[in-house]
Design brief:
Number of strands: 14
Radius of gyration: 20 Å
Helix content: 25-40%
Order of helices and strands: EHEHEHEHEEHHEHEHHEHEEEEHE
Strand content: 25-35%
Largest sheet: 8 strands, parallel
Amino acid sequence: MNPRFILLGGFLGAGKTTTVARLAKHFTSQGLRVGIVTNDQTTDLVDTQSLRSQGFDVGEVAGACFCCSFDELTSTVDRLAHFNPPDVIIAEPVGSCTDLVATVIRPLNAVYERPMEMAPYGVLLKPSHGLKILRNEPGTGFSPKAAYIFTKQLEEADFMVINRIDELSSEVVSELEMRLKDQFPGRPILKMSAKSGLGFDGFIKQLSTPGNYGRRVLEMDYDLYAEGEAELGWLNSQSHVESTTPFSLDAMLLRIAERLSETLAEAEAETAHLKVIGLWDSHYAVANHVSSFTKPELSLPSHATVSQAEIVVNARVAIDPVELETIVRADLDALSTEFGLRLRISTMQSFRPGRPVPTHRIPADV
């Protein structure tokens, strides 16, 4: 039996990783073997470490998006299948990527030699930035170039998911649904909270719906697409902290996210997504900040008191990456003093994504 391949799209901060984890738990509970493929423009991914900490088999495509590292994507799928072939493969692309039908889904069908059953391509809507972009109102924190990526992601979806509905009023949910129907007609719109599980059964049912999917090939302006991605500064860092006095891992992570959100707001830099993970022994926790319109939250608590930890920060912010690195270094130093910790930063990378150059682009049926 061929494995099912589930590609789950959505903008930075839409809740893809939380959804992937819930999906993996669901399929595992059914006795199915699950493989996960994460993706980012660089290494030291919070998503990869978080999912592995939950016991999942995770392969990572790092250094470029799936479309620009298609051979690495297929090699990663092959590695997952080598010893204990998965029944389900869940792939989470970079949150600033689009045109995935033509550059990932169609090439998997036409070029990759391992047969797979393609699930419908679902895209999660990020409400905090999504409502402003769908209204076409100013003050989203992003330029129209970045908003172009956001809308193109929705345009190519087989179905769309309004995620984080537990954080929204019924009026906002209704408006989002209405605007999606008006601007992207002809496809199902689901409402869900990946965090609480509300509406998740409908999401599973949609993924299991038979049909001919991956047919919405976009007309793309790759110059505009590249400029939209380059608007964001990306940063990944890994640090070690320790103290003679035990401290709350959760409180420290949330404070890092809060401090960074405050500093970035002062710099008038819009956050697309900020993730902070803490790991030590069997303990792990994650804090998130997804926009200037929302507060940082502890999305995955550990309830642990530790005397040391590994800390990973992934930040995607509309700011020059050099300035972003300066802010992160300064805030980590300040917070280590606040918590009485010894801080050692082992790696820190900051950059702007390069122009997307897909390995394959198949705009028509082959």
